[in-house]
């Protein structure tokens, strides 16, 4: 975009410094470009008139015309309202005002014909429109025929007379100046192939569409453009990384073969084998691997990681495994230790609570190369932790680690960069993965080990607690273990903490002769660990806990997961929690406990959980319910600054954008072809304006 668009917003006529300050604070509108890209979030249909007998409460905003028969003020004091009775040839409807009555009285007189616009509601048998827009009939408004944009605004802006209408006026004024300055920023090939609306028309029609058809075309064009450029930039990142960072060649599969033939306790699933092959191909390629492995809880990601580590170690390098919590690091250590012993490998654990003497030893053995595998938490990222030759870094449960941390791991090995394998059990819908991790390759373990019985999930009301406790007793008598989880959204929330303690006491009263554990965020890590280990060893039968057990913990004998106040959890979290059971051969159960009072969304979440155990299906519904913002968190923003696209709805356009971006970069990686000049110019302006992309990688 030309320099015109970087003009500060205060210089637009009708704005000035004070409103400019407010616009930047409230809506992050700083420049002309920001304002012109402040898109309407909906449009009011002014393309047709309805007759009054067609009016129905399900209609959103409608336009009618008629004459006011009479006006009356009803009620007194705070209940006072003004009612105007509007009539056309077919029927009558009430227009009501609770506020601004004097203003309305001045504007409306009986016998006059008006064009009225508003949202109809039904009270008893009567329809009415509260606070409608009302104008005397003119030849101009009778022609109607347009969609009126509605812009996002805030209470503070409205207080300064910057409501949707006023913003619309500002944009109209700006468009008049801007209209001949828009440059086409897609190649004519793309515009023609996809029959896209040109940039200039799209910018006009997104704000002031003539009709629904032009609006759809404008929207499609702008969404495509936005997603296309996100993809081009992500793919560029990936390409430059591949060029810049040579990967260590890992091509010795001796250890892997020995392990596979002599020590692997089960058959790998087809999906596990496929993912290992995908990694092995990358290891041998000479390029640095950056691969995200998505696999539902219990799909067996750990063993895949271990087998990949064996390739790294066999090829004279070391491996690191980073987990988000100490408990998980511990569990990984315990899980891998027997395998390491069998294979004659040395493994150690490094966390924030490792003793100094341990640390020193670990640091030494890492540098000498004596240590083959280091398992740990964030502590692995500290600068003092240096490897002789790190070949593979595995990051478990990706969603707790940002891109920056990934970068830190790469830097552990200056000469050549270790391969990075990121494992996540939070299934991310394809559309989101493409945008968030567009710079990674993605593998999926989309198959559970055989013999697993699908977890049975039910929703029970608090009133049925006795029955639920009876079931728990029954399961424990059969030798199983049980989780009872309480929401503790913030570890500091006293109410939640009290709920947990009350819950623990009532469980203790109900199960007097059964050993219990309790784990929550206020306990010291060592105490948490101790209790967790008692449960893992089967010494305690019921684990009362907060969500600290959410991620990764593996107790195959646990067969019941009870989630208290289940309505307070998000879908992704419910799914994670449920994944703690169903890991052994026994039938497992998940019981979602709630009060009778439930919001509509909470009901959908609970129903979803009862109906499916498919993580990807759940992730899709989650995305639709929450929108992508919550799923991605802030650490990714920058990559995710989407102004018009909505990842929960625009999956198809995203797919198309990615396909076109890949084709473009394959055919013309440096964007040297004349036809791609507009694209190159646009990318350059983006990189100048927005962020330093190389830093993010
Ligand atoms: P997640 O993918 O959730 O991290 P884990 O790696 O913890 O899952 O594996 C869950 C359990 O399944 C572990 O006890 C593991 O030993 C077991 N497991 C993994 N792969 C298989 C397989 N192919 N067949 C049988 N059991 C398996
Ligand atoms: Mg795991």
Please explain how this structure is put together.
This protein has 697 residues and is an alpha/beta fold. Among the domains are: 48-144, Beta Barrel (OB fold (Dihydrolipoamide Acetyltransferase, E2P)); 254-285 and 300-424, Rossmann fold; 456-612, Rossmann fold, CATH 3.40.50. Helix content is 42%, strand content 18%. It is built from 26 helices and 22 strands. A seven-stranded mixed sheet has the order 6-7-4-3-2-5-8, covered by helices on one side. It has a seven-stranded parallel sheet with strand order 12-13-11-14-15-10-16, sandwiched between helices. Helix 15 links the parallel strand 14 and strand 15 (419-424). Helix 11 (270-285) runs parallel beside helix 12. The longest helix has 33 residues, at 212-244. The protein is globular, with a radius of gyration of 31 Å. The two termini are 26 Å apart.
Which helices and strands appear, and what pairs or packs with what?
Elements: H1 16-27, H2 32-36, E1 42-46, E2 62-74, E3 81-87, E4 92-97, H3 101-107, E5 113-118, E6 120-123, E7 126-130, E8 133-136, H4 139-143, E9 146-150, H5 155-159, H6 164-178, H7 188-193, H8 199-207, H9 212-244, H10 254-262, H11 270-285, E10 290-295, H12 301-314, E11 318-322, H13 326-343, E12 347-350, H14 356-368, E13 373-376, E14 390-396, H15 403-410, E15 419-424, H16 430-436, E16 441-445, E17 456-461, H17 465-477, E18 481-485, H18 494-510, E19 516-519, H19 525-536, E20 542-545, E21 558-563, H20 571-578, E22 589-594, H21 600-611, H22 615-626, H23 628-632, H24 651-667, H25 677-689, H26 693-696
The structure holds adenosine-5'-diphosphate and magnesium ion (MG).
């Amino acid at each position: 975009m030309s320099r015109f668009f970087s003009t500060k917003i205060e210089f637009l006529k009708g704005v000035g410094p004070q409103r400019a300050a407010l616009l930047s604070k409230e809506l992050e509108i700083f420049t002309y470009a920001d304002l012109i890209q402040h898109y309407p979030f909906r449009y009011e249909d002014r393309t047709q008139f309805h007759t009054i007998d067609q009016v129905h409460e399900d209609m959103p905003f409608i336009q009618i015309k008629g004459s006011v028969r009479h006006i009356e003020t009803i009620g007194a004091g705070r209940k006072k309202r003004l009612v105007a009775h509007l009539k056309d040839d077919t029927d009558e409807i009430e227009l009501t005002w609770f506020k601004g009555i004097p203003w309305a009285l001045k504007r409306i007189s009986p016998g006059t014909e008006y064009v009225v616009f508003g949202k109809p509601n039904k009270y008893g048998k009567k329809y009415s429109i509260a606070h409608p827009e009302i104008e005397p009939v003119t030849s101009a408004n009778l022609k109607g025929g347009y969609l009126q944009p509605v812009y996002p605004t805030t209470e503070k802006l409205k207080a300064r007379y910057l409501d949707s209408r006023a913003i619309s006026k500002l944009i109209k004024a700006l468009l008049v100046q801007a209209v001949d300055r828009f440059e086409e920023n897609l190649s004519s090939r793309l515009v023609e192939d996809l029959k896209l609306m040109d940039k200039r028309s799209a910018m006009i029609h997104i704000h002031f569409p003539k009709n629904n058809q032009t609006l759809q075309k404008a929207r499609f064009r702008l969404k495509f453009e936005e997603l296309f450029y996100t993809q081009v930039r992500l793919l560029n990142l990936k390409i430059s990384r591949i060029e810049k960072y040579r990967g260590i060649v890992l091509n010795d599969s001796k250890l892997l073969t020995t392990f596979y033939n002599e020590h692997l306790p089960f058959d790998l699933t087809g999906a596990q084998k496929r993912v290992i092959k995908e990694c092995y191909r990358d290891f041998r390629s000479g390029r640095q691997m950056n691969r995200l492995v998505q696999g539902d809880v219990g799909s067996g990601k750990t063993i895949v990681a271990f087998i990949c580590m064996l390739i790294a170690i066999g090829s004279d390098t070391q491996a690191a495994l980073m987990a988000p919590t100490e408990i998980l690091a511990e569990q990984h250590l315990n899980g891998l230790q027997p395998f390491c012993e069998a294979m004659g490998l040395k493994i150690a654990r490094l966390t924030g609570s490792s003793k100094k003497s341990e640390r020193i030893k670990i640091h030494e053995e890492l540098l000498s190369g004596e240590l083959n595998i280091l398992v740990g938490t964030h502590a692995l990222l500290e600068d003092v932790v240096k490897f002789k030759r790190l070949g593979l870094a595995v990051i478990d449960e990706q969603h707790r680690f940002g891109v920056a941390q990934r970068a830190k791991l790469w830097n552990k090995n200056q000469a050549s960069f270790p391969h990075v394998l990121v494992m996540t059990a939070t299934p991310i819908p394809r559309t989101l993965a493409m945008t968030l991790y567009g710079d990674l390759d993605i593998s999926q373990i989309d198959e559970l080990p055989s013999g697993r019985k699908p977890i049975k999930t039910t929703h029970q009301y608090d009133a049925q607690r006795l029955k639920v406790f009876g079931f728990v007793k029954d399961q424990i008598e059969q030798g199983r273990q049980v989780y009872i989880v309480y929401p503790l959204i913030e570890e500091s929330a006293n109410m939640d903490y009290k709920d947990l303690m009350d819950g623990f006491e009532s469980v203790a009263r109900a199960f007097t002769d059964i050993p219990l554990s309790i784990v929550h965020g206020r306990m010291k890590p060592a105490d948490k660990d101790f209790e967790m280990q008692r449960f893992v060893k089967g010494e305690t039968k019921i684990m009362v806990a907060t969500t600290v057990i959410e991620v990764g913990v593996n107790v195959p004998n646990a067969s019941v997961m009870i989630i208290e106040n289940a309505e307070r959890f998000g879908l992704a979290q419910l799914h994670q929690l449920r994944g703690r059971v169903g890991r052994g051969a026994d039938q497992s159960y998940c019981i979602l406990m709630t009060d009778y009072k439930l919001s509509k969304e909470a009901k959908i979440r609970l129903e979803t959980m009862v109906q499916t155990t498919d993580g990807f299906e759940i992730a899709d519904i989650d995305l639709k319910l929450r929108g992508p913002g919550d799923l991605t968190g802030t650490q990714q923003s920058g990559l995710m600054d989407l102004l018009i696209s909505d990842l929960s709805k625009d999956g198809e356009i995203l797919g198309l954008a990615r396909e076109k971006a890949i084709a473009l970069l394959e055919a013309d990686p440096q964007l040297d072809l004349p036809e791609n000049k507009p694209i190159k110019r646009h990318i350059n302006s983006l990189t100048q304006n927005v962020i330093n992309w190389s830093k993010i990688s």
